[in-house]
Amino acid sequence: MEFKVEIGPQFEGERVRKDDLYIEFGGPKVRSKGELVTVREMDEIEHDKITILGPDIPDLEEGGSYQIGTLVEVAGAELDKDMEPVFERKIHIYSNYIEGFMHLGQRNDIWMRVSKDAVKKGLTTLKEVGKVLSYLYTSELPIIEKVAITYITDPQKLEEFISTCLAVYKERDERVRGMTEESVDEFYGCTLCQSFAPTHVCIITPERIGLCGAISWFDGRAASRIDPLGPFFPVEKGELLDENLVVYSGVNDVVDERSMGESSVYSLHSIFENPHTSCGCFEGIAFYIPEVDGIGILSRNFNGESVIGVPFSTMAGELSGGKQIEGYLGIGIEYLRSPKFLQAEGGLRRIVWMPREIKERVKDDIPEDIFDKIATEEDAKDIDALIEFLNRVEHPVMSGEFA
Ligand code: SF4
Ligand code: ZN
């Protein structure tokens, strides 16, 4: 296969910075974006067909940010729907194999950049990107026999596509709700993000989604079966060493080995003691606010400064990279719904601030008596205002009664 630019894992960690940027799709400046993998019947798709619905790179202005949807349809005799999220995560990996092309994020939170150099070399259409993905899907995953890729930039078609995506993501997240860590024998690990954060290991349990927010326990299981030598693997729980922090001997062994000794103990549900590491693609951040002895939540989608005066990007820069950092935790937003969410620290009762959008999103899982006591950007923009707010609503952190 001949492509206009080079492809291979050597380009995985490559960033496309502002000065070198030709065009971007998705990202914080545009509202509508998303990606989805759907399993089809063999006769439903035409292999290697790449379709662009709406304007393509040559029709768009250099330097601009544009909305986009990516639909990857796959078929194969042995495929089943359980595998969709796993294949979907591969969009991230394979896109980053392309020289001069960068992909960040997942689901409806994606960001793609094309560099000026790549355009000079001939990466002048999304079709070329699709061609590479199509080639990698079938050559790297023999279980996939056919693949068809569609990029959607047309505003109306994109809206329809995004609403389909949201319904699918919701269904996936709901599937695992109600399952517990105690009810399964195995967790799953993922080291997919080691290309960016070489010592990072995600441990995925029924009560703790991968911190990109895209990989649930079911997805970890499907992935480790599809590709036993790949980045997903089963983790024997072993012995429960600490019930409050949730430390398992089997998890520790795996983390020690796969992080190359960087981390040897993981508390699955604590932000303070041996917290889980963070790579770089977490959907949100939980951060300790010492002034009020509470915890704040920040999401990647939140434009603006957090209550402690720093935006997501700054905080993300500090905690990413695969190290354990007490008081900071990269999280999938779905984790906020987990009954074990930071249980060692008092869980949701310890949360003092989060963006309004997130509060709305997880509304049903926040205990009623605490809901109005959690400040958003509308209630408090800085620490002084936060203290005033928490005192006024008598938030449990102010009396230390959050346990
Ligand atoms: Fe895997 Fe975790 Fe990276 Fe998601 S954030 S791809 S679960 S390592
Ligand atoms: Zn990551």
Question: How would you concisely characterize the structure shown here?
Answer:
The protein is built from eleven helices and 17 strands. With 403 residues, it is an alpha/beta fold. Zinc ion binds next to loops.
Please characterize this protein's 3D structure:
The longest helix is centred in the middle third of the chain and has 22 residues, at 155-176. This protein has two domains: 9-176, Bifunctional carbon monoxide dehydrogenase/acetyl-coa synthase(codh/acs), Chain M, domain 3, CATH 3.30.1650.10; 181-398, Bifunctional carbon monoxide dehydrogenase/acetyl-coa synthase(codh/acs), Chain M, domain 5. The mean pLDDT is 96. Helices cover 27% and strands 21% of the residues. It is built from eleven helices and 17 strands. A hairpin with a 2-residue loop joins strand 6 (101-106) and strand 7. The strands form five sheets. Strands 4-1-7-6 form a four-stranded mixed β-sheet. With 403 residues, it is of the alpha/beta class. Residues 89, 190, 192-193, 202, 210-212, 214-215, 279, 281 line the site of iron/sulfur cluster.
| Parts with pLDDT < 50 across at least 5 consecutive residues | none
* Structural class by sheet pairing and helices: alpha/beta
> What is the CATH superfamily of the largest domain?
Bifunctional carbon monoxide dehydrogenase/acetyl-coa synthase(codh/acs), Chain M, domain 5
Q: Could you tell me the radius of gyration in angstroms?
A: 21 Å
Ligands: iron/sulfur cluster, zinc ion
Total count of strands: 17
CATH class of the largest domain: Alpha Beta
Please tally the helical runs, counting DSSP H or I stretches of 4 or more residues. Answer: 11
